[in-house]
Design goal:
40% of the residues lie in helices and 16% in strands. The chain is built from three helices and three strands, in the order ααβββα. The protein has a three-stranded antiparallel β-sheet with strand order 1-2-3, with no helix packed on it. The chain is globular and about 30 Å long.
Length: 75
């Protein structure tokens, strides 16, 4: 999460609210909703995309529960 935050310049609230459907690792972009409910496209670097892909494949599935939403990061 920190790598993505640092590499992309996202605000913490934008990163925490990121949805799977707004993530495009192939193009290295994420669509986020930030201050003032404004939506913007943010480029994500290769290293951050690789770390995110690893998280989505190996770690996130272990956190998914019955009522899990589509947020990228789960607690």
């Amino acid at each position: 999460m920190l790598e993505l935050l640092y590499a992309s310049g996202l605000r913490i609230s934008e990163l925490a609210g990121a949805k799977l459907e707004n993530l495009n690792l192939t193009e290295g972009m994420v669509r986020v909703t930030g201050k003032g409910n404004k939506t913007r496209l943010v480029p994500v670097g290769r290293k951050a995309c690789a770390a995110l892909a690893k998280y989505l494949e190996a770690e996130r599935p272990q956190l998914v529960r019955r009522r899990t939403g589509s947020e990228v990061f789960l607690s």
